Request: fold
Amino acid sequence: MRRTIYTEDHEAFRESAREFLDREARPHLEDWAEAKALPRSFWLAAGKQDLLGLEVPEQYGGAEAGDYRFNAVFTEELAKVNMALPSCVGIHGDIVAPYLVHLTTEEQKQRWLPGFCSGELLTAIGMTEPSGGSDLAALKTTAVRDGDEWVLNGSKTFITNGYSADLVLVAARTSPEKKARGITLFAVEADREGYSRGRKLDKVGQDESDTAELFFEDVRVPDENIVGQLDEGFIHMMTWLPQERLGSAVTNLAHARQILDETLDYVKERQAFGQPVGHFQHNKFLMADLVTRVEVTQAFVDQCVLAHCDGELTPIDAAKAKWWTAQVQNDVLDHCVQLHGGYGFMNEYRVARAWRDARVTKIWAGSNEIMKELIGRDLGL
Reply:
């Protein structure tokens, strides 16, 4: 079924983004996987093509698209390459961006946004902690006022872009007695004394993605680095989590669809017992099931994108999109591996890497179980 949410402008942008990735990303994926990070040259190239500041006003160097559909188009094209690219680029341009655009002062915008857009200032967001996982209200990282500065202590883990980031948006507890209502967001520069990075984490998949532990030992940060309002960090995070979860949904589905299309080509060509493996009734029915599942899911995700553009996407609908697409993605890719037979278990085949890369989508951005809990509460249960 033809998708109708995108205009000619969006499709022209898609073509431009695809050409950029063909030139700047696809030829280098093996090197990036070995380095466990995207090189700064990629970020600078993306900045030069105005791909990092889609939400940033032009006066600060951004593209100021004013339409989330451009974010979605770029996310889809990134996901067609692999899962690591939309993960890393999405953290910077799709997740951190709203905080820096909507919650910062004029001075902060001028200080951070030009480099953010050019790729000279790479960002990450420090929410998840070793002991808390998806429970953002249980943060243990603290920030204690000392004069006109704050002293941060604690740690974060599973931080995408964490090893390379120049600026990390850190959630810390500033008023412990207020519990969830006592969390503040701080922008912490990576060169501050007491800030350190752990090792690049050895993940099951997404080898190209830079993921690290971060440590804060008496890191002093001025008042001028508070992002948003004091003690309202949890509210700020809840405000922008729907966009993060929608971005995850767009990524999950585009990634699954790309590998499914490649698998369809494979089962048409691969011979077994004198005929293409796709001709066997089981496989024919399976492909019909998977294609239908993806296309029906796409209709819901597209509606979520439109709702977000209109400022009407609810946290509950974002949670539905996030967990459902993660489940569909993992189910589809597991079948794609099976359809490739023994080759599906070989890392040299894209389907094997895609299968590994996708497993985390049922965990990050709030686990699927947390998403169902949120939906269940909304049902009055």
Notes: Residues 207 and 268 are 30 Å apart (CA to CA). The chain has a mean pLDDT of 96. The longest strand covers residues 149-160. The chain is about 50% helix and 15% strand.
